Amino acid sequence: MEARAIRRRGPTGEHRLSLLYLAPSLLIFAIFVFYPLGRTFYLSTMGTDIIGRANKFVGLDNFADMFADPGFFKALGTTALFVLFTVIPSIFGALVVVLLLESRISGQRMFRTVFALPFAFSVATASVIFALIYNPAVGMANGILSYVGVERIGWLTEPDLALISVSITTVWMTLGYNVLVLSAGVGAIPTEVVEAARLDGATGWRLHRRITIPMLSPQLFFLIVISTIHSLQSFGQIHILTKGGPDGATSTLVYWIYEKAFSYGSSDFGTASAAAIVLLVVVLVCTGVQFGVLERKVHYR
Amino acid sequence: MTLPRSRTRGGLAVVAALSLALTGCGADGGSEGGDAATAPGPEAITEPIEIEFWHSMKEKNELAIKAMVEDFKKANDKITVKPVFKGDYDQMVVAYKQAIQQEATPPLVQIYDIGSRFMYDAQQVVPMYKFIEKDKFDQNANIEPNIASYYTIGGKLWSMPFNSSAPLLYMNADAVRKAGLDPDKPPATLDEIGEWAKKLTVKDGSTVTQYGFNAALYGWFVEQLTAQDNAEYCDNGNGRSGLATKVNFGTGAGPKFAQWLGDLVKEGYATNTGRPTDQAQNAFKTGTVALHLESTSALGGYTEAAKGKFELRTAPFPKPSATSTGGTIIGGASLWINAAGHSDAEKRAAWEFVKFANSAEQQSKWHAATGYVPVNPQATSNDNPNFQVAVTQLRAQQPSPATSGCLLGVMPEARKAAEVGLEQAVPAGAGQEAKTSADQAMQNAAASLQSSIDKYNANVK
């Protein structure tokens, strides 16, 4: 009786209190997420004057302009490839690193630190370093190749290769974080589960396939979702390494939006907002599909 | 974690737009600027005043600005100029547009050359000629005519040239001599550079250890070579007798340069370091490249880098062919005084600083500290012969519509389009074929601008 009374009284009181606790973050969300989101929808229907002011309602003209631009579709394709080239290698690579580190080798802690280190680099720093490595005339990458007698490669200047080079940089940058998350995940696997499996004769790859990887599935799922979103939103490395070139080969959707809105003295916020809405839809669909398809396979403890 | 940055920017723009919507004005703020604006006299300053000066100068150049501001403070006890770094030239335009929306422009702003038409159309400023008339300032004696011509619209000066740069041919003189060539007789045309590049390319087995030539795929070079040909980059007298309605780099020097560079790269005499200029600069600084095109603004850094490694020499920027009769275009940036939303005292204070920055004494110091070409012809130029080349090159030519440069609202985009054309026409490395022929690539690039030009022109008419 008493318990039920409390429960009945509880929600409203607690509800108010919870709102109070949530207020600061709600306010920040409202200012920095919900308002810009609403504004993006508004701007996507407006024309823009030379100063960047919305000056007249144009309906869906911005969307029409965007869909009429071959560069937009190219950017969509580039974005898809970029996600593919970064998410899969960075998670798979991190998994391999973490599983290798699981075997008892000397200097394990050192290796773990070394592999997690790229996480400490800012995008700008890492990109500048990679720009030096990739320099076709004086870069380290071609220097090493020339030792083994291979012709110089235009890492960032060959349209077919530039996206892969930018992806390598991105994988290097994200690998550290992925290693950290997966290491923590491995550390949290109860020893008795592993011991039991060992007693049953599971060793090496079999142990990993049957026990470690399934037990890591929550972390893997988290990384797939987060990496996909990050990858869709990548900007800094593209800006520093290639500026979207050569010939648009590394211009992802985010970079296309940036160019429309801010780059080269442009201030076409209308078309940029229309493309931003497309990006939002792409992120929502990707995340939705991942939750729908992958989450079912996740083993939560 | 990079999108948040661009998103924040978008957010700022949005917040800016909101404040505009809330205050409900801003559209009429522009009416104060333009030809109707008036220049206040010295009596406008009655009490101490501080004005902001937005600039894009980094590192040693920023230090030079701070020194200039200090000197100014000593000479004018009533006016304090506060320099504010607002990011690179492109970012400055973004920041300035947001400031217009928020009605928070600074009294004084530095805008790059290719933003000049936008500045004119935005109608925010007191044109410089108003102050020049008011003060009976001797323009011809104090501003190099070849520099002033870029910032002259309708026969009148709209902004004060501040940091001016010119294009140069850079040489690794040691490499040149080693190849049996004479650095005192530098190549003057693209074809001559090509000849030299062949002799200057050094191979160790099958790998190239020194390339004859390299330049960034930089649209500015297309503009320069077009002017060297005495041709106009955009129509309507380079946008000076009316709004330009199309660009011309699809024919003439544009495709010629693209074809020439593409051939050199294909044959292995030049390396393609792509669009970012620092990639090309790194290649030259390390001595891997013998001949190289860049602006005078790189000279300071190159002098430093070459010290103890190789002898650095400069030469006049090449002409597309021996019969070219034009000249080069000034690059860099100029100072604009904002009218909209500013008091007479602020405008006058900004002009006092502009005048001070233009003085022969300050331009001499500025030139020595930064390597920019002195704007004031009375300024003493650096005795480094490598600097002298640029000054001589500039002073030798006659101002013409071609060498004044193209005034185009979407000029930054035009430069980028030319760069995309170069990317298509220049193969990535030796033995490779370009994706598109030089003619086709540059024509496509010029055509790709049309909708942007039309959109801009429709907005300002």
TrEMBL record, chain A:
BP GO annotations: transmembrane transport
InterPro entries per UniProt: ABC_transporter_permease, MetI-like, MetI-like_sf
Is the DNA-binding keyword given for this protein? no
The protein's location, in the record's own words, is: Cell membrane
A GO CC term attached to the entry: plasma membrane
Q: Which domain of life is it from?
A: Bacteria
**Which Pfam families does UniProt cross-reference here?**
BPD_transp_1
Q: Which residues form the ABC transmembrane type-1 domain?
A: 75-290
Q: How does the protein's chain sit in the membrane according to the entry? A: Multi-pass membrane protein
Q: Which residues cross the membrane?
A: 20-38, 80-101, 113-134, 161-190, 211-232, 272-294
**What coarse category fits the chief subcellular location reported for this protein?**
membrane
Q: Per the similarity annotation, which family is this?
A: Belongs to the binding-protein-dependent transport system permease family.
- Keyword annotations from UniProtKB, A to Z: Cell membrane, Membrane, Transmembrane, Transmembrane helix, Transport
- Its name, as the record gives it, is sn-glycerol 3-phosphate transport system permease protein
UniProtKB/TrEMBL annotation, chain B:
Instruction: Identify one Pfam family in the record.
Output: SBP_bac_8
What keywords appear on the UniProt entry? Signal, Transport
Q: Which residue intervals are annotated with compositional bias (Polar residues) in the record?
A: 434-448
Span list, region Disordered: 429-448
Would the keyword Signal be found if you checked this record's keyword annotation? yes
The yes or no answer to whether the keyword Transport is present is: yes
Question: Which Gene3D superfamilies does the record associate with it?
Answer: Periplasmic binding protein-like II
Task: Give the UniProt subcellular location, in the record's own words.
Answer: Cell envelope
Q: What is its main location?
A: other
The record ties this protein, via CDD domains, to: PBP2_UgpB (cd14748)
The signal peptide here is 1-27
What are the GO cellular component annotations?
Answer: cell envelope
Q: Which InterPro entries match?
A: Bact_solute-bd_prot1 (IPR050490), SBP (IPR006059)
Write out the similarity annotation: Belongs to the bacterial solute-binding protein 1 family.
What PANTHER family does the database record attribute to this sequence? Answer: ARABINOSE-BINDING PROTEIN-RELATED, SN-GLYCEROL-3-PHOSPHATE-BINDING PERIPLASMIC PROTEIN UGPB
- Quote the protein name from its UniProt record: sn-glycerol 3-phosphate transport system substrate-binding protein
Lineage, uppermost ranks:
Bacteria, Bacillati, Actinomycetota, Actinomycetes, Streptosporangiales
